[in-house]
Amino acid sequence: MMRAAVCVRAGGPEVLELRELPIPTVRDGWSLVEVKGVGLNRSELRTRQGHSPDVRFPRVLGIECVGIVADSTDPALPEGTAVAAVMGEMGRQFDGGYAQYTLLPNSLLMPVTTTLPWEALAALPETYLTAYGSLTAVGIVPDGRGRLLIRGGTSSVGMAAAAIASGHGIETMATTRRSSKVEALTAAGVDHVLVDDGESLSASVRAIWPEGPDHVLDLVGAHTAVDSLRLVRRGGTVCVAGSLSGWLIPDFEPIALIPPGTKLTSFHSDSLRGSAGASVLRRIVHEVEKGLYRPNIDRVFGLGDIAAAHRYMENNEATGKVVVLP
Q1: 297, 303 in Cβ contact below 8 A?
Q2: Does residue 18 form part of some domain?
Q3: Which CATH number fits the domain that encloses residue 237?
Q4: Could you give the number of structural domains in the chain?
């Protein structure tokens, strides 16, 4: 038997119940992973709230995890191999990482070799793959040119993006709604921190960059994407890669709302799952080991405190990544 945090129905953090479940049995194409760490994500919060219509409860949530292969059906991934996994319908169509063991498709498993502790490794996969992919989408990686505005800067992805951009010599600006989080963004490598009080952000941005940023990484998403299109310089790029304010942009009219020559793109970490992201993740882990990037861990919870962890995330108390150790 194993312990698992089961989302029994849609609702508040209290619907996450710690239960004893049978350890899954391997089947063709799937291997058993002993989970050593899980990074929490806003998408899991929204799934728990009932905003993922394809998800059926009860379900073990968790779109990512790190751990050790405990029972393998893939000769290339023998027992004892350290692995990470993200997306691919983890925690949605099949049980995910909120457990001591999880059964995952071999195609999702990314082998890693590292000296990092489990909590540090657990903070990296979804967060840093999303940040790296988003910066690639706007053209910053690998060219290393332009000025970047990160909206939602104190999210785990925002802080990872700041670390990567800073590592590439990019001048960065980031927003936060809380003045108490300014110091954390500066420590993450942000050059200019703006406290977004809900009033016009444009004046504050243009006081520093009169023509606007070359790129905007919008992690707030639905509520700010249109404003980001107005903020970015003409011909610049806005990448929506977060859903802190939801997934849908209401009444969006592309011709009216996208300035001529300006580009609107997006990034979703599902495109870097499995073999597609393995080399990128290994590079990220290596850069963290060298001290170029930081895991940006805000707080570590035990699996038995999963409801408290979700409540902490839902209340926007974290500055960086929330990690759960089973």
Answers
A1: no
A2: yes
A3: 3.40.50.720
A4: 2
